[in-house]
Design a protein that fits this description.
The chain has 333 residues and is α/β, with parallel strands linked by helices. It is built from 11 helices and 12 strands. The strands form 3 sheets. A 7-stranded parallel beta sheet has the order 3-2-1-4-5-6-10, sandwiched between helices.
Length: 333
């Protein structure tokens, strides 16, 4: 597997930069496709080739893909609140179609498409898996809807001969979350003493470095057209905050607020965001809708078929804290 030429779209992003690092460590010659205005800090000091290619530009995507053995399509527009959803659909859906069509024309050996557990079903009792029934109507917000549609594009591409394997990461945490992601923002807000209360919800947290290694395992051992959940530990939000408290020395919030109260707060915050600030609110209605269900997932398939073996998430949270404090976006405890 060594010395392949691998392309990573969105290789400057949180998950993407860790995929790039894992490939470089494996010995690949890595090409990273990114937009001209992209933040490249996550790639500082990494030996890789940078090419300018917005995934919405099919010609640029084709030039980036040509000559590569493997393609890791990690690029995505990941926001839980936005004024206009059309650019998100253009990136997440049409961008995915462009990458898969380019990979097919270039006859690459393997494509790994980075989906999300957000595109999967969540049963009433117990964690969700790759086969839990779900439909577009179950998707909350433009991000989940666009990623659900993009995943269908990938499945259809596999049926037409594109050697694509789908991975569904849960909620990655760790270092180099420069943006930060919505999950990273929760950690930053906690460190900056901006989380006075919590809602009764849950999520599956995973070390971002395990997610990156899972991508390589999917390329090597995954079955074309199949989905693999790359998850870690199922934790309630209260458990996550208590873990952050232990690691940082800061007190965890003790007040649990009903979802109805959170809904009212988000309604007001969104009204201010849309009419006055034009910037993302502290809490969005999409986030409150998502909190109605505990997003717990089962990674048994990836463990059994790929040899995926995630590490304890507490270590990743510690690295996230160190990164956010070290980069100056969060106060030290």
């Amino acid at each position: 597997m060594a010395h392949l030429r691998s392309l990573v779209t969105g290789g400057n992003g949180f998950v993407g930069c860790h995929v790039v690092r894992a490939l470089v460590e494996r010995g690949d010659r890595v090409r990273v496709a990114l937009r001209p205005d992209s933040d490249r800090r996550a790639l500082n000091g990494i030996d890789c080739e940078l090419v300018l290619a917005d995934v919405r530009d099919s010609g640029a995507v084709q030039r980036a893909v040509d000559g590569c053995d493997e393609v890791y399509h990690v690029a995505a527009d990941y926001r839980l609140w936005l004024l206009d959803p059309r650019p998100m659909y253009a990136t997440n859906v049409e961008g995915t179609r462009n990458v898969l069509e380019a990979a097919h024309r270039a006859a690459v050996k393997r494509v790994v498409y980075t989906s999300t557990v957000g595109a999967l079903g969540i049963p009433a009792n117990g964690p969700g898996n790759e086969t839990t029934p779900v439909s577009l109507a179950d998707m909350v917000g433009p991000y989940k809807r666009s990623k659900f549609i993009a995943e269908q594009v990938a499945i259809e591409a596999a049926l037409t001969g594109v050697p694509v394997v789908i991975v569904n990461p849960s909620t990655p945490v760790g270092a180099l979350d420069f943006k930060p992601t919505p999950t990273g923002r929760v950690i930053v807000d906690f460190l900056n003493r901006r989380i006075p209360a919590y809602v009764d919800t849950g999520l599956n947290l995973v070390d971002v470095e395990d997610v990156a290694r899972g991508h390589l395992l999917a390329a090597e051992r995954g079955k074309v057209g199949e989905k693999y959940i790359l998850g870690g530990e199922n934790l309630t939000l209260r458990e996550v905050l208590e873990m952050l408290s232990r690691l940082s020395g800061l007190p965890a919030p003790r007040v649990k607020i009903p979802l109805a109260v959170a809904w009212g707060y988000a309604l007001g915050a969104e009204a201010v965001a849309r009419t006055i600030t034009r910037r993302p609110p502290r809490a969005s209605l999409t986030e409150v809708r998502m909190a109605r269900k505990r997003m717990f997932f089962d990674s048994s398939k990836a463990r059994a078929h790929l040899g995926y073996a995630p590490h304890p998430v507490e270590d990743a949270l510690r690295r996230a804290i160190d990164f956010f404090v070290g980069s100056g976006v969060a106060r030290a405890a």
